[in-house]
Write a structure and sequence with these properties.
The protein is mainly α and 355 residues long. The protein is 66% helix and 0% strand. Helix 3 packs antiparallel against helix 5, helix 6 packs antiparallel against helix 9 and helix 12 packs antiparallel against helix 13.
Length: 355
């Protein structure tokens, strides 16, 4: 029995919402465990088997905790801001393909759709700072907006390199072109810039100034508590999974197996399950790298953070675009220059870090 297109899309959206909530709970638990072992401790252990119920217990605590609104705050702006941060991130999942068929809606302009949505949560952060009627929250919101806007540019340029190489904005088609070799081998500099810029977009270490308690009392979230604060955290971990899934699709071949060409559209439930498993494995691998970086790197200062975006990432992202465009016009062998540019970028970062 085939369901009408509208009902089928709504059913997929409902299932996706529940999957996102489950994924967030799992990621919080995994992060606590990974960071615990990096820091030579166990992480949560007492609530449930190896602390597995600790995250659901924290979620229940936040749901029943008193939700406070400052008396002088702009009530509507203050209350709507968390949802303007979360909803665009949630809508990113609409066009992320877990297999050739397992996607809510395959869009021809999928990459454009994702880049547009990823920049909208800046408005929510600004509204959170402004609506709190707190000068420190407002300062934190402005700093968060400056960071997100600055790192949005190299992120978009890194993705544009993949678009030029593939000649498509459709995620499903981009994954299908990686049946032999993943684009990460052809776009090493773009993949590295995407990873770094994504960390800043998600406010993850070492770019976690907008939400760090030692930086302007937690930034624009200083006046939030209870459920509304939890929505910001929900958005953070949902963004982490969505960004890792996008990276797995455009750089690591999505559900395709490396160096083993197979049909772009998988047939049969067993094949679909295998494809989803492989896609999620790649995504979780990237997420573990993000957790590892959090337990390893120190936080940057705001001047270091902004200078790194404008003096390092943006110029090298332009270099990556030039190399990719030249490879498309004059021959793919020019892509070897991308590896030289990646080495130059790594050396420049090393020299800058020694100052």
């Amino acid at each position: 029995m085939t369901l009408p297109a509208g009902i089928d899309a709504l059913l997929r959206l409902f299932l996706m919402a529940n999957v996102v909530l489950l994924v967030v709970l799992v990621l919080i638990y995994i992060e606590r465990k990974v960071l615990g072992h990096i820091q030579q401790r166990l992480g949560p252990m007492r609530t449930g088997f190896h602390g597995i119920i600790q995250t659901p217990a924290d979620a229940i605590k936040l749901l029943i905790k008193e939700d406070l609104t400052p008396q002088s705050a702009d009530r509507w702006v203050f209350q709507i801001a968390p949802f303007l941060v979360f909803v665009p991130i949630f809508m990113m999942f609409v066009t992320i393909p877990f297999t050739g068929e397992l996607v809510v809606r395959n869009l021809e302009l999928g990459i454009f759709y994702l880049v547009a949505l990823s920049s909208l949560h800046v408005v929510g952060m600004l509204m959170a700072g402004w609506g709190s009627d707190n000068k420190y929250a407002l300062l934190g919101g402005v700093r968060a907006a400056a960071q997100l806007i600055s790192y949005e540019l190299p992120l978009a340029f890194a993705i544009l390199g993949v678009v030029i190489l593939s000649g498509s904005l459709n995620l499903k088609e981009i994954v299908g072109l990686q049946t032999g070799v993943p684009f990460l081998l052809l776009q090493p500099l773009g993949g590295l810039i995407f990873l770094i810029a994504s960390l800043a977009e998600m406010s993850r270490t070492p770019f976690d100034i907008p939400v760090a308690e030692s930086e302007v009392v937690g930034g624009p979230l200083g006046e939030y508590s209870g459920m509304r604060w939890s929505v910001f955290m929900l958005a953070e971990y949902a963004s982490l999974f969505a960004t890792a899934a996008i990276a797995a699709a455009i750089y690591l071949g999505g559900w395709e197996w490396p160096f083993a060409p197979n049909p772009g559209v998988l047939d049969g439930w067993a094949a679909r399950l295998l494809g989803v498993t492989w896609f999620v494995t790649k995504t979780l691998g990237l997420i573990i790298v993000v957790f590892w970086l959090r337990g390893t790197l120190p936080r940057l200062r705001i001047d270091q953070l902004m200078g790194f975006a404008w003096k390092m990432l943006i110029p090298f992202s332009f270099i990556n675009l030039i190399i990719t465009a030249a490879a498309v016009v004059y021959g793919g062998v020019i892509l070897l220059a991308g590896w030289l540019a990646t080495g130059g970028f790594a050396y420049a970062v090393y020299v800058r870090s020694r100052r």
